[in-house]
Amino acid sequence: MNEKQRLESQQVQSPKNKEEKDYSKYFQTVYMPPSLKDARRRGKEDIKYHDDFDIDERFKEMGNGRKFYIRTYGCQMNEHDTEVMAGIFMGLGYQATETVEDADVILMNTCAIRENAENKVFGELGHLKHLKMEKPELLLGVCGCMAQQESVVNRILEKHPFVDMIFGTHNIHRLPEILHEAYMSKEMVVEVWSKEGDVIENLPKVRAGKIRAWVNIMYGCDKFCTYCIVPYTRGKERSRRPEDIIQEVRQLAAHGYQEITLLGQNVNAYGKDFDDIDYHFGDLMDDLRKINIPRIRFTTSHPRDFDDHLIEVLAHKGNLVEHIHLPVQSGSSAMLKIMGRKYTREQFLELVRKIKKAIPDVSLSTDIIVGFPNETDEQFEETMSLYREVGFETAYTFIYSAREGTPAAKMKDNVSMEVKKERLQRLNALVNDFSRKAMEAHKGQIVEVLVEGESKNNPEVLSGYTRKNKLVNFKGPKSAIGHLVQVKITEAKTWTLNGEMVDVQEAVEVI
Ligand code: 5AD
Ligand code: SF4
Fold first, then answer.
1. Could you tell me how far CA 343 lies from the centroid of its own chain?
2. Measured on CA atoms in the order 269, 274, 278, 282, is the torsion positive or negative?
3. CA of 281 to the centre of ligand 2 (A)
4. pLDDT tens digits for 203-254?
5. Residue 1 has pLDDT above 50, yes or no
6. Is the pLDDT of residue 46 over 80?
7. Number of H-type helices and E-type strands within the chain
8. CB distance 234 to ligand 1 below 6 Å
9. Are 361 and 334 a contacting pair, CB within 8 Å?
């Protein structure tokens, strides 16, 4: 299917405020809003792989003398999408800028996971309106997960009509065409595909760092946990072919990258969509561990698909780090059922037991939602007791936020916000306690640190992460930046460690 056919195959709805804004003449290309109905659907059609991305000759001068600025909200997937969009901008001749005032194009790469993430973006749009009024030629775009939601697009059309373009997570590779339309049309360009089955391989990227890199292994999610908007904003599960991932990791290793984080909404479902090969996440990790790169991580995993083969492969360690982020969401089987997580408390604990047996020094972290509709005190206590029983070293904790279009948003909720906040506080106190304990266990140990640069709070000190993802601050020569060094831990705080480098001589000699 070519681009035109792909565009035409998308469902097009007529704009609600068509009378005031005449989108009709650009209808097929510039007014294509999201559709929740389409986003919910999961078709059987094959995933198509494209490696023919190219910037059209017509657009190659588009960015000459112009600067772009991208503000990124939300998860690592978004950060990586920003790297891709930066690559496309550079291919169009734009320069990057770190200041919004200097920019000729501003993109907001947004997150829809909770309401407060959305509020931040709407607040920021209010600020950017002034900039746009002072500089009418400025192009302002909203992309990312919020753009995939019908309600958000309608709100922008109604309340923020100064926005020039809205495009979705499946339309990133169309950035040149979208920018072109925005320059030409004077009307808001809305291009959001809701149902997408493709993987586009050869998109350019400008990576934010030279030490650690993100590598997508799959896109989308088919789990449909009842509270979660991601399956609607990111589409169906599509795995990249193993050879493409392996080649990308090899190239990053050859370019001196020290650490790779494999990305997917649910990495454990990797390969389930292949119908020609029997190749899953454990197989991929087994192939990647043979590549000469010091560290490989992954995020995020789902307990349900975490199989024995994967555990067996991770137990080899080597460049596969002994840190696993394993979102549990709740410690109550009844809550897990209503959340649509498809495992019980006991099954989760059994998985943890297997992981700990195979990797005794594993560090586990998790995500937890408190105050899901009708969560009782006892059910919350089950989350607290599960946390203790597993001994997670850290957690991201959230108050449930209703997302329009998800099944949970329709559930009646009898838990007051006050109770939800109280539960969050209690859970956070427990999380802090366990984090401090895990940090204290490092005292006196010598750990491997990948040095990222000067500490944000103190340029006299270097900082970097251990294999278990603990932030370490220590005195050392700038020449150590980008290298793995050994650090003796002298002090433990709740979230960071302080230490002294023990192999200064060796680190200097490496350079
Ligand atoms: N409300 C609160 N937290 C949520 N998460 C996902 N959806 C919601 C929601 N509607 C949390 C989950 C997930 C993490 C990325 O965000 O814990 O693992
Ligand atoms: Fe959302 Fe569940 Fe998919 Fe994670 S696994 S992205 S929580 S639907």
1. 23
2. negative
3. 17
4. 999 999 999 999 999 999 999 999 999 999 999 999 999 999 999 999 999 9
5. no
6. no
7. 16, 22
8. no
9. no
